[in-house]
Design brief:
39% helix; Protocatechuate 4,5-dioxygenase, Chain B; 281 residues; three-stranded mixed β-sheet; alpha/beta; 12 strands
């Protein structure tokens, strides 16, 4: 896959999160310091984290990244939805690195090549895109930059498909590309959108029930049937299938909130959830 000789610039710094490096670091560190996730029993293979502006979902996101704070990973695969008109069912960046105010994160070309090959074996493809404005992948990066110990490379994936077999193939291909690496998976997803808070909590609870049951198919079915809601359910399903193939066997829910916690408008809210995907000892 051809890569241009430049860093993907951030289209959301200064809007979705602070654009000043010192301010951004302080904000993320503050969220991490305040997060109190439950005690986990097992190795963290993956995380599920929301992707709204930090003022709305940062506190919930911090509960996910707190579970890996101080740990080192060679590579992080971040799987997100794609909110613009999709150019392909599965996409990645053509840039050699992502840029945030905290510095650049190199794309792992070795892992990306392995992912391309693993998808091809499953008769699937991944398309490179440039000049995208997708926020849901980038929004996770400053948390990773502040929480993890040392530098890491990035495997960025954006999923526009909701087809179960395609997402299972993506998950299995991700696992194959990451096998043998000290790797972390991150699924970027908010939950329900623009329902009253009572309805939102009901929809969120069902989606979180499927996630906690480690059921990617159940999460997709809940979203399709309208009993649960997650805008990044495709990313969640792919990451659950990938984590399962890498030996994970349980999910621990860490935090849930809605935008009403900040806006105090309970008539139309967005739901946020954080979870850790674990491999039991």
């Amino acid at each position: 896959m051809s890569l241009p000789g430049e860093v993907r610039p951030s289209p959301i710094a200064g809007r979705w999160y602070p654009g000043d490096p010192q301010r951004l670091a302080a904000v993320v560190d503050g969220y991490l310091a305040d997060a109190r996730p439950p005690e986990l029993h097992g190795e963290v293979v993956g995380l599920i984290s929301p992707h709204a502006g930090y003022q709305y979902s940062g506190a919930t996101a911090a509960h996910a990244f707190k579970t890996v704070q101080g740990q080192h990973y060679d590579i992080v695969a971040v799987v997100s939805p794609f909110h613009d008109y999709p150019l392909a069912p599965i996409m990645t960046t053509v840039y050699p690195a992502y840029g945030t105010p905290l510095g650049k994160i190199p794309v792992d070309t070795q892992a990306l090549t392995a992912l391309v090959e693993a998808l091809r074996e499953r008769k699937e493809t991944i398309s490179g895109i440039s000049r995208d404005s997708e926020h849901s992948l980038e929004i996770e990066l400053p948390f990773l930059q502040r929480a993890l110990d040392g530098p890491f490379t990035l495997l960025p994936v954006m999923a526009a498909t909701h087809q179960k077999q395609q997402l299972r193939s993506l998950g299995e291909a991700l696992a194959k590309a990451l096998t043998g690496r000290k790797a972390l998976l991150v699924a970027s997803s908010d939950l329900s959108h623009f329902y009253d808070e009572r309805t939102a909590n009901k929809l969120d609870a069902e989606m979180l029930r499927q996630i906690s049951a480690f059921s990617p198919a159940g999460a997709l079915n809940a979203d399709q049937q309208g009993s649960g809601f997650a805008c990044g359910v495709a990313a969640i399903a792919a990451v659950l299938w990938a984590a399962s193939a890498l030996g994970a066997n349980s999910v621990e829910l860490l935090h849930h909130s809605t935008s009403a916690d900040q806006t105090h408008d309970r008539s139309s809210v967005v739901g946020y959830g954080a979870a850790a995907i674990l491999k039991a000892p």
